[in-house]
Amino acid sequence: QVQLLESGGGLVQAGGSLRLSCAASGSIFSINAMGWYRQAPGKQRELVAAITSGGSTNYADSVKGRFTISRDNAKNTVYLQMSSLKPEDTAVYYCSAQGVRAGKTWYLEVWGQGTLVTVSS
Fold it and tell me: In 3-state terms, what secondary structure has residue 77?
């Protein structure tokens, strides 16, 4: 069974930085795309950033220039470096993996349990 384990969330002051990590486990052969989503209280979950196995990236307009997504394919791990954080970045951040091949099983999409990021003003 494939699992995603996020880490790195916490409380930070506005203008500060945090780095989120998400490691996939479970006899993984390959992962197509990995990404970070977030959900603030009372709002829908939204895409923050995504990265393909080839390194192509996509960012939400609200985080462009402040957040950087990267991945280590050998470790099946994706990172989100967040800088110049704003109070509106406060949310639960979820890791997602799409197109996961593990053993003889294909997983269309796998989600982590989420990690809370709180940015104080």
Answer: strand
75 dihedral zone (left: phi>0; alpha: psi -120 to 50; beta): alpha
Token pair 């791990």 is found at 77
Using one digit for the tens of pLDDT, what is the confidence trace for 64-109?
999 999 999 999 999 999 999 999 999 999 999 999 999 889 899 9
Residues 24, 110 contacting (CB under 8 angstroms)? yes
State the sign of the Cα–Cα–Cα–Cα dihedral 62, 44, 114, 41.
positive
Q: Which of 81, 46, 44, 80 is nearest to 60 (CA)?
A: 46
